[in-house]
Specification:
The chain has 276 residues and is an alpha/beta fold. The chain folds into two domains: 126 residues, D-Maltodextrin-Binding Protein, domain 2 (3-Layer(aba) Sandwich), CATH 3.40.190; 94 residues, Periplasmic binding protein-like II (D-Maltodextrin-Binding Protein, domain 2, 3-Layer(aba) Sandwich). Helix content is 42%, strand content 22%. The chain contains ten helices and 13 strands. The strands form four sheets. Strands 1, 4, 5, 6, 7 and 13 form a six-stranded mixed β-sheet that branches. The N and C termini lie far apart (76 Å). It comes from Streptococcus oralis.
Length: 276
């Protein structure tokens, strides 16, 4: 009889433990079901400032606050941010772990074939950055034989890899890194490589915030508007329609301009015709 009681007690404890584990593992789903809203996980690698950065342990920046404004008061969606490595942003979209991503993302044909582009939320042309005392680099025609640091799979990395295919007789020297943009700019200032191609807003922000007064910015010609977009996983067509509509509304009611001035110090918005 004692054995039966003992066994029953253990079985009961096991059932309780299993119930606790089940409750923990299904907590998010239950919360989602209780709220009646779909959770949208937005991926980012947390840089560059002022687009995305951490302050007091919380993500903020222009793109983060735009996304918060997009989903504010939505009766259908809840939004959650997840920080990951640059490559993890795309791997997560591919695996449906993330439904959306923001990371100062520009348009490329390759990305457009794999993901959905929402309406643009900022205008951000690329520039060439060199040391002020370096007169050997004045345009992209001068980067052959010169060195730079790049993060693999970024737009600038692909641009320079394509440059090397077209200039195999005198390629530019590409040093791949996982460092963030602020670290890369400091190393450029220290003379560890010769130049950097990046977006104007990010460059000017880092030069100002880091006191890198020995660097100069060279404007680059462009045959198209260099916009910044939220990116969505394939199959998220309904979500894209919602996000596009909200971006249009935020443009019209002045929210995008307010956030642009707050984080960029000026208005860097797309042309209104391009967000329709």
């Amino acid at each position: 009889m004692k054995k039966i009681v003992k066994y029953s007690s253990l079985a009961a404890l096991g059932l309780v433990a299993a119930g606790i584990l089940a409750a923990c593992s299904g907590g998010d789903k239950k919360e989602e079901a209780a709220s009646g809203k779909k959770e949208i996980v937005v991926a980012t690698n947390g840089s560059p400032k002022p687009f995305i950065y951490e302050e007091n342990g919380e993500l903020t920046g222009y793109e983060i606050e735009v996304v918060r404004a997009i989903f504010k008061d939505s009766d259908k969606y809840d939004v959650k941010f997840e920080k990951t490595e640059w490559s993890g942003v795309f791997a997560g979209l591919d695996a449906d772990r993330y439904q959306m991503a923001v990371n100062n993302l520009s348009y490329t044909k390759e990305r457009a074939e794999k993901y959905l582009y929402a309406a643009p939320i900022a205008q951000n042309p690329n520039v060439l950055v060199v040391k002020k005392d370096d007169d050997s680099i004045k345009s992209l025609d001068d980067i052959g034989g010169k060195s730079t640091e790049i993060v693999q799979a970024t737009t600038s990395a692909k641009q320079l890899e394509e440059y090397n295919k077209q200039h195999a007789d005198n390629p530019t020297i590409l040093n791949y890194t996982k460092a963030d943009f602020q670290q890369i700019m400091v190393r450029l200032s220290d003379g560890q490589f010769d130049y950097k191609i990046f977006d104007k807003i990010g460059v000017e922000t880092v030069i100002k915030n880091q006191g890198l007064d020995n660097l100069k910015v060279i404007e680059l010609p462009s045959d198209q508007q260099p916009y910044v977009y939220p990116l969505l996983a394939k199959g998220q067509d309904e979500l894209k329609s919602f996000v596009d509509k909200r971006i249009q509304e935020l443009y019209k009611d002045g929210t995008l301009e307010k956030l642009s001035k707050q984080f960029f110090g000026d208005t860097y918005l797309p042309a209104e015709a391009d967000i329709k």
